[in-house]
Write a structure and sequence with these properties.
alpha/beta; 15% strand; Rossmann fold; seven-stranded mixed beta sheet
């Protein structure tokens, strides 16, 4: 287990869907986990099923959902960057990198988790991953924490097999509870799981494994 894990991702629910099992395993072992969340996901298309949110209420709702999910995951240190959803790639890159670098220097994590800068589908995912890799890279090598990232989507096969896979089977129930906390985004998925045993089986198999690649600084 790690001394302190720093998770840097752009949206509420990324921490749970992408890395929830890893976070739970670390937090249950006594490892402090800090989540730096770039946006509040206010441009998300999902607003519950049936709708119970509006464009105006969604940011507050998603922040509340994030805090509920993090309580399940065992994360009490949540840092909100306040970037507008779907604009991470357009913010001042140097300013974002400096903000992340300051947090890394403050927290001194033994591990940083983020998205792959090229293979994580959503522009916000990739932009936050790229900024994280750059921020860590600016830290002197003798104090630089390792960066491990999730990668998925078209073209990911060029990376080869993941460096390691976290088996989250033993904490899957807690991970699914955290997924349920992000109700505005996941209610439809959870309804399908409840009504279709095969869909439930596929989803549980997918969510019980979290694959990571290790960034190699030159």
């Amino acid at each position: 287990m790690e001394k302190h894990v720093l998770v840097i991702l752009p949206h509420p629910d990324d921490e749970t869907l992408a890395m929830g099992g890893t976070i739970i395993l670390q937090s249950r072992a006594g490892t402090p986990v800090t989540y730096v969340c770039g946006t509040l996901g206010e441009m998300g298309r999902n607003m519950g099923k049936p709708f119970f949110a509006s464009r105006e209420s969604l940011p507050r709702l998603r922040e509340a959902e994030l805090r509920e999910a993090c309580a399940v995951l065992g994360v009490s240190d949540i840092r909100l960057l306040g970037i507008r959803d779907k604009t991470v790639e357009f913010v001042d890159r140097d300013q974002l990198v400096n903000r992340l670098m300051a947090m890394i220097e403050e927290i001194r994590p033994s591990l940083v988790l983020t998205y792959h800068p090229l293979f994580s589908v959503h522009p916000d995912h990739m932009a936050m991953g790229a900024a994280t890799v750059e921020a860590v890279g600016r830290i002197p090598a003798d104090r630089r924490p390792p960066v491990h990232y999730r990668a998925f989507g078209p073209g990911v096969e060029v990376l080869g097999p993941p460096d390691y896979v976290v088996d989250a089977t033993e904490v899957l129930e807690a991970k699914m509870k955290a997924i349920g906390a992000h109700r505005s985004q996941t209610e439809g998925m959870l309804e399908r799981m409840a009504s279709d045993p095969e869909a439930r089986k596929r989803m549980e198999e997918m969510r019980s494994k979290e694959s990571y690649w290790i960034h190699k600084y030159e």
